[in-house]
């Protein structure tokens, strides 16, 4: 994920608004107690998600891939007064931890946390979304995209995380590297899709931001 120097990364973080106490707690406890803590959005990316959400002021947000809840709470910061956020994750083992964090949040009554396979859950969501964040298993990114594209409001935004995949997308994938191959295919299909306009930001592990036309 390190595409720029450590000094520049630290300087950027130091000159980015502080996250709240609960987010810092989730960051700390995830890194201490949960497997694969690099999956956490973290300070810089979390503030970017919060900023985008504040710009959009969405009434309905969908997150695909909750992990320990950090990014969901960042996205919730910009919700409209009557806004709600639905977050989906397949990992039942993290449910007690995530539910605890959500209950501690000021947004607890505006969050809906569903545990299960997103490919099954998304079709059951009968509403339009202003903002969708995709941060789950990479091999299904394009399937998630196709499931949500018709549920988007016109002018709504989709954000996909880990799009640069530690730089692997610009090198020839190794045999059996399904994740890298899936992301390369996803990036190309999105870039050629007339339903959206897109910008790929080389932030952290890469954020693809799409605006639905």
In short:
By secondary structure, the protein is α/β, with parallel strands linked by helices. It contains eight helices and seven strands; from the N terminus they run αααβαβαβαβαβαββ. The chain has a seven-stranded mixed beta sheet with strand order 3-2-1-4-5-7-6, with helices on both faces.
Q: What can you tell me about this protein's structure?
A:
This protein has helices spanning 6-14, 21-33, 42-56, 70-76, 95-104, 118-121, 141-149, 178-191, and strands spanning 60-64, 84-89, 111-115, 129-134, 152-161, 196-201, 207-212. With 213 residues, it is α/β, with parallel strands linked by helices. It has one domain (6-212): Rossmann fold. A hairpin with a 5-residue loop joins strand 6 and strand 7 (207-212).
């Amino acid at each position: 994920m390190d595409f720029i120097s450590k000094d520049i990364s630290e300087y950027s973080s130091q000159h980015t608004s502080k996250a709240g106490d609960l987010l810092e707690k989730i960051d700390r406890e995830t890194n201490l107690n949960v497997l694969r803590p690099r999956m956490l959005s973290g300070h810089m990316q979390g503030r970017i998600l919060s900023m985008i959400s504040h710009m959009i002021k969405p009434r309905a947000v969908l997150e695909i891939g909750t992990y320990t809840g950090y990014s969901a709470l960042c996205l919730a910061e910009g919700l409209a007064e009557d806004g709600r956020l639905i977050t989906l994750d397949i990992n039942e083992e993290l449910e007690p931890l995530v539910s605890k964090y959500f209950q501690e949040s000021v947004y607890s009554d505006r969050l809906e946390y569903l545990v299960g396979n997103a490919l099954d859950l998304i079709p059951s969501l009968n509403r339009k979304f202003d903002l969708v964040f995709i941060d789950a298993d990479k091999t299904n990114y394009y399937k998630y995209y196709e499931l949500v594209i018709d549920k988007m409001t016109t002018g709504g935004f989709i954000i996909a995380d880990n799009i640069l995949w530690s730089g692997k997308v610009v090198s020839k994938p190794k045999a059996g590297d399904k994740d890298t191959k899936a992301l390369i295919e996803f990036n190309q299909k999105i870039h050629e899709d007339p339903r959206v306009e897109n910008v790929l930001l080389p932030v952290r592990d890469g954020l693809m931001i799409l605006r639905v036309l």
